[in-house]
Amino acid sequence: MNKVTLAVIAQKANLSIASVSRVLNTPNLTSALTQSRVYKAIEELGIDTPFNTKPYHVECETQKILIIDNQLFSQSLINIGLESGLKEAGYQFFYLRFAYSSPNDIHHLIRYATQNIFDGIVIINDAPYLDILKNYKSTLPPIILVNHFSLDFNCVYFDHLTIAYNITQYLVHQIHKKIAVIINDSHKKSSTLFLQGYQQALLRSNIKFDPNYLIHHCFSYEQGRSAIKKLIESNKPPTAIICSDNIHLNYLDEQYYDQKNSQHPFAAVLGILHQVNQSKDQLTTPIAITYINHSKDRQYNELDQLSRIYKPLSKMGKKSARLLCDILKQKTASTLQYHLVETESLFIN
């Protein structure tokens, strides 16, 4: 959309041009009421505010970091590592759950971030507003995206393609050819990459991909049980099952939000495991189950006996804090940085 003059916004908001300019460029010097009137006018006019706002400029350090936590399961090990790293560097951190519902809501986030003068912003997990937020990067302090990859932001992330490839290769080496894979949300980028890794491993082992072994939207305990029961009772039951994890899901997804208080991060895995145990009499050979774990601590349940890939979430959080601190020390715009966090295989032969 073409640039709209401050005069147009001022007329719509019934304010002076100077007041509109202060709201867009130095919101910390304006009242909440004035900001509300300006942003309401902007929304009604349908203006793309990035083109009407001055680039972010560091005037003084506040030692404050804004953490926007989109995780379905909040206060994960990512938070622990992130908070630890920020505390060590002398930063205060403030949490925000941004209840985004429409494109115009992004103005509230921009206003909050600029009014409170944060030195940097950390965003945990994917969110539907990231495609819009990228247009506002020049007007905001440095942003670090954690546990999600995007070419538009500094990122600290896991390679889900390689994770799935390694798990599938391990099972193939264990003489498994009928390998099912459980995907919680096929629309997520991490799920897409996970599926690609699985298919590549099968292809390189000359095993034809069977779409009947691909289970979508398996998140809850009951969904896990139902999906595996159906597979076991089919003409070609699998001999191995790969379970993707739920740590990349976000609370803004309506299909998960209502279930968040009653679900465990490994709910689907537990459902699958219990159904496999109940169906032992129907199986000619035991089913191998692998999953993705987030801690080396014992779960003190059946999960401790399964092969798994270990994702060091706490390390990811701490690495994100260090990256942000390094960028803030430079105090200049720099090339985007993408940092891969290595995983560890804990396979049981």
Characteristic key phrases:
alpha/beta; 12 helices; 349 residues; 6-stranded parallel beta sheet; 6-stranded mixed beta sheet
Characterize the structure shown.
This protein is α/β, with parallel strands linked by helices and 349 residues long. Helices cover 38% and strands 14% of the residues. The chain contains twelve helices and twelve strands. The protein has helices at residues 6-13, 17-25, 32-45, 77-88, 106-115, 130-133, 160-173, 189-204, 221-232, 254-257, 267-278, 313-330; strands spanning 64-69, 92-96, 120-124, 143-146, 154-157, 179-182, 214-215, 240-243, 288-293, 307-310, 338-340, 344-346. The strands form two sheets. Strands 2-1-3-4-5-11 form a six-stranded parallel beta sheet, with helices on one face. The longest helix has 18 residues, at 313-330. The model has no long low-confidence stretch (mean pLDDT 88).
First-last Cα distance: 59 Å
What are the secondary-structure elements, in order, as H or E?
HHHEHEHEHEEHEHEHEHHEEHEE
Main pleated sheet: 6 strands, parallel
Mean pLDDT: 88
- Low-pLDDT residue spans: none
What is the radius of gyration? 24 Å
Count of distinct strands: 12
What topology emerges from the helices and strands here?
Layout: H1 6-13, H2 17-25, H3 32-45, E1 64-69, H4 77-88, E2 92-96, H5 106-115, E3 120-124, H6 130-133, E4 143-146, E5 154-157, H7 160-173, E6 179-182, H8 189-204, E7 214-215, H9 221-232, E8 240-243, H10 254-257, H11 267-278, E9 288-293, E10 307-310, H12 313-330, E11 338-340, E12 344-346
Helix pairs in contact: 1-2, 1-3, 4-12, 7-8, 9-11
